[in-house]
Amino acid sequence: MSSKSYRVGIVGATGAVGQELIALLQARALPLAELRPLASARSVGRHITFGQKKIAVQAATPAAFADLDFAFFAAGTAVTKILAPEAVSRGCLVIDKSSAYRMDPSVPLVVPEINAEALRSHHGIIASPNCSTAIALMGLYPLHQAFGLKRVVFSTYQSVSGTGADAVAELEAQVQAYTAQQPLPRTVYPYQIFQNLIPQIDSFGADGYTGEESKMRAESRKILGLPDLKVSATCVRVPVVRAHSVAINAEFTRPVSVAAARQAIAAFAGAKLIDEPASQAYPTPLAFSRQEQCGVGRIRVDTALDNGLALWVSGDNLWKGAALNAIQTVEKMIALSLPLRA
Fold first, then answer.
1. Which one of 83, 146, 244, 319 has the minimum C-beta count within 10 Å?
2. Measured between alpha carbons, how far is 118 from 295 in angstroms, rounded to an integer?
3. How does residue 70 score in pLDDT terms, banded at 50, 70 and 90?
4. H or E element at residue 175
C-alpha cells in the first residue's frame, strides 16, 4: 500500500452502498488524510461514524470536490451526470457505481481482477459494472481464459437489497404481516416479493429485455473485450435480503472439462471454488454475504451446448457488486503506481 494518504469523498454516503463503502474503507485501511461524506440536502447535518470520529455529512455540490483526490459516487445516474464533470474539472477522480458512463467509450468499465490495464486510459471517470455483471464474471472470466468464450446465457436470482433499503423493509414487513395474518403491504415492487419471484428488474425495452438484462449483455462485452459476444440474460428478483446468484450456461471455442474448469476457478483471485456434489457443497447467497470472493460451484458439462459448461455463482451485491469493487479499483491503481487524481 502507498505511503501517501488521500482526501476522499463519498457521494451518497448515507445510502446502502455509501455505508458499505465507509465500513470497507475502515476494514481495508486505505490511507486517508480526510473522508468527506457527501449527500443530498436532506441528509446534511447527519453524521457518519468512521473509526473513533463522527463526521458531519456535507451537501454534494460542485464546490465540495475542490481539494479531493478522488470520490466514490454511489448516488445514481442523475446525480452522477450532474456532479461527476464538476468533480473532474476540479481535479477529483471519480469512481462511479451508476450506469451513467459505463458504456461511454472514453470511460473504463473496470473489474480489477479482469481488466485492470484499462485504468491506464481514464480521463477522470472510472465506472464500476452492474452488480449482477460483476458477480457473474467472477465465475465466467477464468473459464473464458481457459477455453475461449463463444456465447453465454445468464439467469439471475437477485436479492432485494439491490433495489435499496425500502425494498428490504418491504420484504421484512411482508414477512411480519404474513405471520400476523394481516394484508401484505406493497409499494416498492409491482408484485408481492415474499414467497414470490419477480422476473423484471428495471423497465422493459422494445426488444422485450429489461434494462438489467441489457446491461449484463453490454457490460460483459466491454469488460471482457468481446464486442460481438452472444449474450442473453433473464434477471429475476427473489425474496433474499442480500447477495445475488447467477446460473450460467456458456459455450466455448475449445474443448472443456469439469476438472480443468474447477482448476481455473480455484486459481482465480475473485472466486472461491465450492463444488463437491457428493457432500452437497455449493455456494449460497447466505454463505457469501459480506464475503470478498464470489462462490462458484455446480460446475458440469452443459448437455445442450457444444463445448459447454453450466455453473452457479453467488456473491455479495453490495460488496463485489458495488462498494468492494470500487475500493479494489483504487487499491489496484495504487499497486500499479497510477495517479489517484483526475
1. 146
2. 25
3. very high
4. helix 165-179
Please tell me the pTM assigned to this model.
0.96
- Catalytic residue flag (residue 92): no
Separation between Cα atoms, residue 305 and residue 250, nearest integer Å: 8
Asked if residue 62 has pLDDT above 60, the reply is yes
Query: For residues 342 and 328, what is the distance between their CA atoms, to the nearest angstrom?
Result: 18
**First and final C-alpha spacing in the chain:** 20
Residue-wise pLDDT tens digits, 300-319: 999 999 999 999 999 999 99
In sequence order, the 6+-apart residues with CB closer than 8 A to the CB of 158 are 131, 132, 201, 212, 235, 236, 237, 238, 244, 317
Any catalytic annotation for residue 244?
A: yes
Question: Domains in the chain and their CATH numbers?
Answer: 6-129+322-335 (3.40.50.720), 132-316 (3.30.360.10)
Catalytic residue among 92, 131, 235, 294: 131
